[in-house]
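Thread: "does anyone have the structure for this chain?"

Original post by V.I.:
We have the sequence but no experimental structure in hand. Need at least a predicted one for the grant figures.
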Amino acid sequence: MSDFVVDPRLVADSYPITELPLCQLRLMDDARYPWLMLIPRRAEVSEVYDLSEQDQQQLWREATRIGKALKAYASGDKLNIASLGNMVAQLHIHVIVRHQGDPAWPGPVWGQGQATPYDKDSLAATKDRILALAGGLSFKG
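Reply from O.Q.:
Generated one for you, tokens below.
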């Protein structure tokens, strides 16, 4: 949609990876966690119920398929999928792979310590791996 714009706060905290059928896939700038974000490319959407039923199904399909692949790739112990929106109202879904013993385990990642930004080389390599991971998935019903 031409009037879809990503909230500047989400842009500041993440890097674009690719466009899925519904969502823009972004990598959160915190190398402590395998952490992706899905942002439905729909204008002025703040809640899941603001999406059509078809888009709701597609959102869940994209979140679960990318999450399953990321968890397998990162050899994670738990997959967290969450939509909070308290700080940024624009609908966005966090897809985070957790490991027992990670810096925030077993609590939530939000507000725990300082983010570890990606350096230039690890960012490029991580983006390439996530793009390859997403490219190997089917996001259709």
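V.I.: this helps a lot. The chain has one domain: 8-135.
O.Q.: and The mean pLDDT is 95.
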